[in-house]
Structures are given as structure tokens and as C-alpha cells.
Amino acid sequence: MFVRDHMTPDPITVTKETSVLDALELMKKNKIRRLPVIQDGRLIGLVTERDILRVSPSPASTLSVFEVNYLVAKMTVKDAMIKRPVTVPPDMTIEEAALLMREHKIDNLLVMEKERLVGIITQTDLFEALIKLFGLRRPGIRLTLKVVDRIGVLADIARLVKEAGINIINVANRHKDDIYTYVVLRLATDDVSSLLPALEDRGYQVVHVSSYNG
To answer: Per its UniProt record, what PANTHER family does this chain match (predicted)?
Structure first.
């Protein structure tokens, strides 16, 4: 699960001389909220809908509507853009990309390869990647177990699932403390009646069972 697999390739770009009105129209037309800024083939910034609104005259301004329109018409992307946007390589994992967005409190990353802009990845792209990773659109059963965190526990659980004739869509875990961890299984079945007793006999506590339609 790498950035290159989930980014939007060859994003629409503008130059620093592009008027903010043209930039907004471009965003509206293409249903996007951000535009990388390119000058002479080089990335020099990023402009977002929010940035443009931030630098535009406030409606509470004492300026007349004509003065406001005149000032906005003269503004260019250069007046609103972020000059040093955060960039990542295409071979970065989506987990690292998500952490980077959180650390910088941003909702997108520009993807660079050999000093060339090749894509953009947003929070929405990361959510979609996680949906695919966890198999959330595939129907089945979601099973949560509380288990002792020890070597071989996942292999043992997988063996019991296999013996029940059930396919595992996805496995995830979250540590509860230094002793226990929660193991979440997404199973390609609508019946775990034969599996649950086998798990409990092995000392695995069934915390939650639910079905989902994908």
C-alpha cells in the first residue's frame, strides 16, 4: 500500500500569475479544492480554496462591493499560495503519509519523483485506501477477540479459522495493555457458529461479533 497506488496522478496545476478568480473557477469546474503551483516546470507552491478565501477582503470590510471586486480581480495565486508545501516520494507507504499529514495538520501531500510533480494524495485518498485494506466493501462477519499477546497467537487463530472452512479477508490488532491485545478478523462468511466454540476452547475471549454487507 504505497502512495503511488492511491494518489491522483498528473494533478491540475496553475502558475503564480494565475488570478485567484481563475484558480477558483478551475477548482469548481474540476471539483477539487487545491492546486499545485508550477513555474518553469518546478513546484513552487500550493494554493487551496481556503487560502484564497483567507486573503480575500472580508464581507465585514468597509470597502464597497466595487472596491472588493476590484481588489479580488487583481489578486493572483502568488498572493495566496503556500510557498513550501509538504512533499513525499511515490514509494512512501500510506501509513507514513497518514502520519505525516497528522504531524503537519494538513489534508494533502504533493508527490514528487526526481524533482518532478507526479501526483497529489489527500485525506480522502487515504480513507479510500484504508477501506480497501480492511475489505470494508466485502460482505462477511467482523469478529473481535481479546487474546494474550504472545508469539504464534495469530498463526493459531488462523489455523482455527481454516479448520472451520472460512476465508480471512483481513486481520488487524490493537494492544490493550502489556499482556492483552485485541485481534479483529474480517471473515468471508455469514456463519461463525462452528468457529466461536473452537476459539473459546483455546482460551480466546470473543468480545464482539457483527455482520456487514460491504
So the answer is: CBS DOMAIN-CONTAINING PROTEIN (PTHR43080:SF2), CBS DOMAIN-CONTAINING PROTEIN CBSX3, MITOCHONDRIAL (PTHR43080)
Q: 58 burial class (0-12, 13-18, 19+ CB within 10 angstroms)?
A: exposed
Assign domain 3-131 one CATH number from 3.40.190.10, 3.40.50.10540, 3.30.450.20, 3.10.580.10: 3.10.580.10
Helix (H) or strand (E) holding 36: strand 34-39
The amino acid sitting at 200 is E
d(CA 84, CA 64): 34
- pTM, two decimal places: 0.75
Confidence of residue 151 (pLDDT cuts 50, 70, 90): very high
Grid cell digits, residue 86: 509538504
Q: What is the C-alpha separation between 95 and 99, in angstroms, rounded?
A: 6
**Which H or E element spans position 4?**
helix 3-6
Could you tell me the residue ranges of all domains in the chain?
Answer: 3-131, 138-212
Antiparallel, parallel or unpaired: β 168-175 and 180-187: antiparallel
The whole-chain average pLDDT of the chain stands at 89
